[in-house]
Write a structure and sequence with these properties.
single chain, 106 residues, alpha+beta, two-stranded antiparallel sheet
Length: 106
């Protein structure tokens, strides 16, 4: 059972009681999509996903679109952009519009 905790501020919610490393029922996926649309941002803490699991999670919300900055793409998963504030890929986080919002169909 998911626990939804609204974040302080005008939007966003934290989702508790979910382990994305385990199989997730279709009904829970639909609920997550609904919560994303309702709250605009969802936070699911302490997940330790493999690259494949992370890619699959992203596909629940639509078809991942490879970013134009090719060096920011996760090798083997072009629809996943690497954003971090640490390590060798730190500079990948300085680019704006990582969500492709500048495109006709973001």
């Amino acid at each position: 059972m998911l626990i939804v905790k609204p974040l302080d501020g005008p939007f966003g919610a934290e989702i508790l009681g979910l382990d994305l490393t385990q199989p997730v029922p279709d009904q829970t996926v639909r609920e997550l999509i609904h919560l994303f649309h309702k709250h605009q941002v969802i936070k699911i803490r302490n997940q330790r996903l493999t690259e494949e699991q992370y890619n699959r999670f992203g596909q629940w919300f639509g078809n991942p679109h490879p970013h134009v900055i090719t060096q920011a793409r996760l090798p083997g998963y072009p629809g996943v952009s690497l954003l971090t504030n640490a390590g060798e890929r730190r500079n990948g986080a300085v680019y704006w519009h990582t969500d492709n919002s500048y495109e006709e169909l973001p």
